[in-house]
């Protein structure tokens, strides 16, 4: 499966939710479905509007180049919820996607444990860690390995060879748990 197919598969699973998103939804992403819960809204994923220039600006802001596969991820769809196995991607709504990603990097956990050490967080792992690009290890074309930061033990565990392998393995793990 391609990264785009994996994203579509798991966005469709999110859209089956009977709860929705807690909070407001951008007008372009608002669904006609109504939630039975107050302050919850349903949303639809839409084609990403992220430009190459916006990615370059984001890379300058965080101080690291991003893998091409992750750039394709950012330029594929806007969404509010995307979970694959134990991995929870930050909301990625139109216009405000940078705010969510930067908050995860700079306000989620102490920066001295991650980005200051060259580990760039891109998703939450369960309720106890973060998946990060490991810029400290040699790689070609910024195709960083992916490490899991455990906030309880403050250590990094190499999990996946790169972002594309991460997505494929997360999808496999998710299928495995759903079929269990």
Topology:
Layout: H1 3-15, E1 21-22, E2 40-41, E3 46-47, H2 52-62, H3 68-74, E4 77-78, E5 82-84, E6 87-89, H4 97-106, E7 119-125, E8 129-134, E9 145-150, E10 155-160, H5 163-178
Antiparallel strand pairs: 1-2, 3-4, 5-6, 6-7, 7-8, 8-9, 9-10
Structure notes:
The strands form three sheets. This protein has a six-stranded antiparallel sheet with strand order 5-6-7-8-9-10. The protein has a two-stranded antiparallel ribbon with strand order 1-2. The model has no long low-confidence stretch (mean pLDDT 92). The protein contains five helices and ten strands. Helix content is 32%, strand content 22%. Strand 7 (119-125) and strand 8 (129-134) form a beta hairpin.
Summarize the structure.
This protein has 180 residues and is an alpha+beta fold. Helices cover 32% and strands 22% of the residues.
